[in-house]
Amino acid sequence: MSKKMNIQQVKQRFGIIGNAPQLNRALEVAIQVSSTDISVLVTGESGTGKEIIPQVIHNLSSRKHKEYIAVNCGAIPEGTIDSELFGHEKGSFTGASGSRQGYFEVADGGTIFLDEVAELPMQTQVRLLRVLETGEFLRVGSSKVFKTDVRVVAATNENMAQAIASGKFREDLYYRLNTVPVALPPLRSRNEDIHLLFRKFASDFADKYRMPTVRLTDDAVQLLCSYSWPGNIRQLKNVVEQISVIETERELNVHILSNYLPAEKEAVPTKFNQQGSENFSERELMYKILFDMKKDLTDLKKLVLEMISQGAGFSIDSTQAEIINRMYSDVETSNSDSTKLLPKASEPNPSSKYAVNNTNDFNSEDDYETHEEVEESLSLEDQEKDLIKKALDKHRGKRKYAALELGISERTLYRKIKEFNLTE
Ligand SMILES: Nc1ncnc2c1ncn2[C@@H]1O[C@H](COP(=O)(O)OP(=O)(O)OP(=O)(O)O)[C@@H](O)[C@H]1O
Ligand SMILES: [Mg+2]
């Protein structure tokens, strides 16, 4: 680009709203580096608009007619991410029936946006460092060196210093990615932009839903601007959409508006500590612990049962038999006689080696297993679903934070959402 676009032109072209100095600074840097091949790391809390920056950079660069590929590093399973990024050769892993180009090959001459870059597994970080330093990479399962010319823009809302300190992220890669940092400010520090954004979104949603534009009374504007917006612009946009659709009143006073803003003390925290669960109420936390324990217990019961039924060559004395009977007594089977799994302590043990599968008493093992499975999984599944829904609602669909709060990995959460069909 012979003459660089100025900030206002960029804002207009990319639909970026706001005049906060930190936002202008971020855009200025993006414009400035767009004509180079320098790696850029975009940082900022969730919902601050990080995804716009790589698009600005790509579209203002001479790479704009080549590929732009955005990759959400947190959403790709660890087992396939190397192959997605760098390609693979036929037969390099089970199911690799043909060879395939990776994004770094496809985007030759273009730009790759690595979103949630802190989620990259270690082995991928090594490959990424190499391609950044030398432009060289290997397909998975091949030793042939390929060359590529890709510009990388990465983004994260993680504390990278912490990720490095805990050994989760390579320091050398961090410095390589962070050649030029672009930091997006949280909405709460962009006071002058909040009402501006509200009006823009209100007008967009009025068009979209063919309704008159919602407006705010003066006291409502005050509340809007003093609110902490833990979910930043994404949250503001969601709130305006809800209001636009739900409210019949088109002029909102402070009382109506406050219904749409979660109480500050319950609001999504902007940074999470390791446990992440602090934000669940005590009752929910206890419930989660019980839930985990119950699951462990079910697994243990199954394990013991399996060991016994395989006649694993261990003997069970009468006390142990009583314990086992008690543990399994909550499991009613259709055949009332078969609820006794083991003889009572008072009953003589038929043989010191108690091979469960040899007794008629236990011929309902299948019943038992099916029954327990159905009963347990139904209630556990519902409870798990419920917890996941709750966490997703609380974090307005942000899976990363919901996963943190649930104490499971983001990948597991993605899987569970799919499994339970929980699309937001
Ligand atoms: N300055 C802005 N003007 C208008 N809309 C914006 C602006 N910044 C962000 N948005 C909108 O806010 C929403 C959230 O932005 P984005 O998805 O880029 O957040 P993010 O920083 O990538 O968050 P996360 O870390 O959670 O992925 C998007 O719908 C985006 O279009
Ligand atoms: Mg994002």
How is this structure best described in words?
With 424 residues, the chain is an alpha/beta fold. Helices cover 47% and strands 8% of the residues. The chain has helices at residues 7-14, 21-33, 52-59, 81-86, 103-106, 122-134, 160-165, 171-177, 191-209, 218-226, 232-246, 254-258, 282-309, 318-328, 365-394, 399-406, 410-419; strands at residues 40-43, 68-72, 111-115, 136-138, 145-147, 151-156, 180-183, 215-216, 251-252. A hairpin with a 6-residue loop joins strand 4 (136-138) and strand 5. Helix 9 (191-209) packs across helix 10 (218-226) and helix 9 crosses helix 11 (232-246). Bound molecules: adenosine-5'-triphosphate and magnesium ion. Residues 50-51, 115 line the site of magnesium ion.
Radius of gyration: 28 Å
Task: List SSEs in N-to-C order.
Answer: HHEHEHHEHEEEHHEHEHHEHHHHHH
Question: Beta-strand percentage?
Answer: 5-15%
pLDDT averaged residue by residue: 81
Largest beta sheet: what is the strand line-up?
2-3-6-1-7
Distance between the termini: 41 Å
Task: Name the hetero compounds present.
Answer: adenosine-5'-triphosphate, magnesium ion
Q: What characteristic shape results from the CA principal axes?
A: flat
Uncertain runs: 266-280, 331-376
Helix count? 17
- Structural class call reads alpha/beta
Oligomer: single chain
The major β-sheet equals:
5 strands, parallel
Tally the beta strands.
9
Can you give the helix content as a percent range? 40-55%
